[in-house]
Amino acid sequence: MKKIGITTTVPIEILLAAGYQPVDLNNLFISDPDPARLVNIAEKAGFPLNCCSWIKGIYGACMAYGIDNVLCVTSGDCSNTIMLMEVLKLRKLNVIPFAYPQQPLPQQMEYTLQELAQKLGTILEAAEIVRAELSPVRALAHQLDDLTWRESVVSGAENHLWLVSSSDFNQDYHKYRSQLQQFISECRQRVPYPDDYLRLAYIGVPSVYAGGLYRYVENHRARVVFNEVQRQFAMPEPGSSLAEQYSNYPYPYSINERLHDITHEIARRRIDGVIHYVQAFCHRGIGDIIFRDAIKLPMLTLEGNDDFVLTSHNRTRIEAFLDMIKLRSSKIDPINTYKGDIHED
Ligand code: SF4
Question: What is the pLDDT of residues 11-26, one digit of tens each?
């Protein structure tokens, strides 16, 4: 199959039906042994320092991995992608624009999907067959999510990695399926996390810290049991057609569509606190104002750029945030904690 880079989650069923193997360029970038080198490729090509690292990483990944075809999402994700697309064209890549419709309405979505299918030389009926093939794979990803928040046997980092990978199923959905099946049966044998761990939600775009953030909070007796955007990549509301599935996918639309999902999951998963990750120079960071107004729980806003590991400043902020929630929910004893500090001094 010909590889086709994707700049965010797209209807991969159509790409697969057209004989393309989707490659999520974000995952290619962040899983590179040295993601900073991909950012450097973009900066050497002239991308400004104050441009989001994901955009630069995507460009660097295209160059370093020799990606020839790219499906660029021009509406419903990131306005920077429009200019990225122009630069990729300049570099002689075959660039295909894709715009989510203005409203998440199945009829509009059907028309948009038909157009994409036509551009790629396939038909929607063929993509529906692929959708049916992917359905059990997506169901496994949802099982893994349930094992995270209901059974407490999957870590936040594992949840993140499996769900974020569902945008392209690690470039091989057969392999993803068998590996995830195996992983789930191993998880079922595990001892659950203790009940006194704080339960956190992670909202916002996936971070540049990959698993590091999750491991850090777990070292402080807290765990992420809800990864908002990553869970959406696995399409938890598949509906009865591709048009419905992608209309139920809230990420490309108003922040209110996301808020509806977030507040529902926060209540269902008994969340104690929220980490909102924002990427430096990203317009989505402004949404923090709306989240803080609507979500009535302690919230920590973390901003990442191109550091790829948690800075000591961020580590301190996370620790203070977790201590504050524990105090509020009496999961630590303030008097003993205070005495402990005096003793150490
Ligand atoms: S983090 Fe924001 S600016 Fe960066 S690619 Fe994603 S949407 Fe665009």
Answer: 999 999 999 999 999 9
